[in-house]
Design goal:
The protein has 460 residues and is α/β, with parallel strands linked by helices. The protein is built from 15 helices and twelve strands. Strands 3-2-1-10-11-12 form a six-stranded mixed sheet. Strands 4-5-6-7-9-8 form a six-stranded mixed sheet, with helices on both faces. Its cofactor is Zn(2+).
Length: 460
């Protein structure tokens, strides 16, 4: 009976609680600036010379400066007074290490830093490093180095705190109290856990970051703080690839355990790296959703060279505005904006458009783990309109009519709900249609019973 009551509550929804003191913040990521992009010479680092290149970019290339500049000023035009900005890294192009060096990598990071400071001079920015923000790429050492130090010098105004600055210099991560109502941001260097970082594969805790995170979240619990976690490389499986995951397995497990352990203080988690628009849920041992992670689409439209992709390998450029409750720090809505690159290159005009509001498009009251879990239940249904929309937005509407078959849908949904690698495999192999879930069977039974009663009353 308790399970039946819980399913009915999930089906009907419950009123949202808390005040309506709504604020906003930006999440922008994966600029992948390509200084070699020159449309007049039909040239970018991938040497895509078979067709003319547009002023604002090409799906075979990384971002020209015009696209990056346009994205930042579009952010200002849309919301010029956000409470803060989250910037989750990857500033250099997808090119070989032979075409880069430490000086070039730093130049690109610092140029984009200065542009963001120029466009939003009075806004706090919480910035993380990506796997392309080091030379050689991916190979971030778990100790102080010239790149960490040079970036720390450039981000000093954003740190506002000597302790945060020092932990960044030592390992590329830090924590800061935020301005409003006892909230805190924790910026992690999850490149340490990335399978392409060969320096950390055999290290139980690179730079001591996991132990540090445990301590920070313990203190946040005692202080009754709400925490925003910010990083570049996400845990879990890539939803557009059957077998691709990013973290080394041991780090994926440790990170998942920490998030579940401290889920009561985590307001939200904001990641990047995949260039796609998706989210993931963490569940406790009772299989209740306890934490939500949001992965923002990239500014770069670059088509990945990863083989065996499921569906499109490129994306339209995206910038993301979150709405959140200032009193609770909990995110309440996503206002996703994008640039239709094909249309832009036809008109030579960058027209950033509102792609969707999550609350309106999906009919959810907020971005809590519970609301997103209800949305996943809707995704599981056959011919789910909610899933069709989600799949379209996953690549910032690059191919609105693209279909997602049975395996495609399984991988997407299992990626959302199963952070653990073994659980993901079991989910994909044993996935069944949404009609077979316990709640859906029970709700179907309840609705059939209601209809039978109505029919009986009508007959009399």
């Amino acid at each position: 009976m308790y399970l039946l009551f819980s399913c009915i509550i999930l089906f009907l929804g419950v009123p949202s609680v808390g005040s309506q003191n709504t604020g906003s913040f930006w999440h922008v990521t994966d600029f992948h600036f390509d200084p070699s992009y020159t449309s007049s010479r039909n040239s970018c680092h991938t040497e895509a010379k078979q067709r003319p290149l547009g002023q604002y970019g090409d799906y075979l290339c990384d971002s020209p400066y015009a696209l990056i500049n346009s994205s930042m000023y579009a952010m200002r035009d849309i919301e010029d007074n956000p409470d803060f900005i989250i910037w989750t890294g990857d500033d250099t192009p997808h090119t070989s290490n032979d075409n880069l060096d430490e000086s070039k990598v730093l130049s690109m990071i610092l140029n984009l830093t200065h542009l963001l400071m120029e466009v939003f001079p009075n806004t706090p920015v919480y910035a993380a490093l990506g796997n392309h923000d080091y030379h050689p790429k991916h190979l971030m050492p778990p100790h102080s180095n010239p790149i960490y130090n040079a970036v720390a010098d450039s981000w000093k105004a954003w740190f506002r705190n000597d302790v945060a600055e020092q932990t960044f210099r030592n390992g590329g991560f830090y924590t800061l109290p935020m301005a409003r109502n006892g909230s805190r941001v924790v910026v992690l260097n999850t490149v340490y856990y990335y399978t392409n970082d060969k320096l950390t594969a055999n290290d139980s805790d690179p730079a001591g970051q996991l132990a540090w995170l445990d301590e920070v979240l313990t203190n946040a619990t005692l202080a009754k703080e709400k925490v925003h976690i910010v990083a570049h490389v996400p845990p879990g499986h890539f939803e557009r690839h059957r077998t691709k995951y990013w973290f080394y397995p041991q780090f994926n497990k440790k990170f998942q355990d920490l998030i579940v352990k401290f889920s009561s203080v985590i307001a939200g988690m904001y990641f990047a790296h995949e260039h796609t628009d998706n989210f993931r849920l963490f569940y406790n041992q009772q299989d209740n959703p306890v934490a939500a992670m949001f992965i923002a689409p990239a500014v770069t439209p670059w088509q990945t060279t990863l083989p065996n992709m499921i569906g499109s390998a490129a994306n339209n450029p995206g910038i993301r505005l979150f709405k959140y409750n200032r009193d609770t720090s909990l995110p309440t809505d996503i206002w996703q904006h994008y640039l239709n690159l094909t249309q832009t290159n036809m008109t030579n005009t960058a027209n950033w458009q509102l792609e969707y509001k999550a609350s309106e498009m999906y009919g959810i009251r907020d971005l809590s783990p519970q609301s997103l879990n209800q949305l996943v239940l809707k995704f599981k249904r056959q011919n789910s309109e909610e899933f069709r929309k989600y799949y379209q937005y996953n690549t910032a509407s690059i191919q609105p009519g693209e279909t997602c078959g049975e395996l495609c849908k399984k991988v997407h949904i299992c990626s959302i709900t199963k952070i653990d690698y073994d659980d993901f495999e079991k989910c994909v192999i044993g996935a069944v249609s949404a009609a077979t879930t316990v709640c859906d069977w029970m709700l179907t039974f309840v609705l059939l019973g209601i209809n039978a009663v109505i029919a009986l009353i009508a007959a009399n």
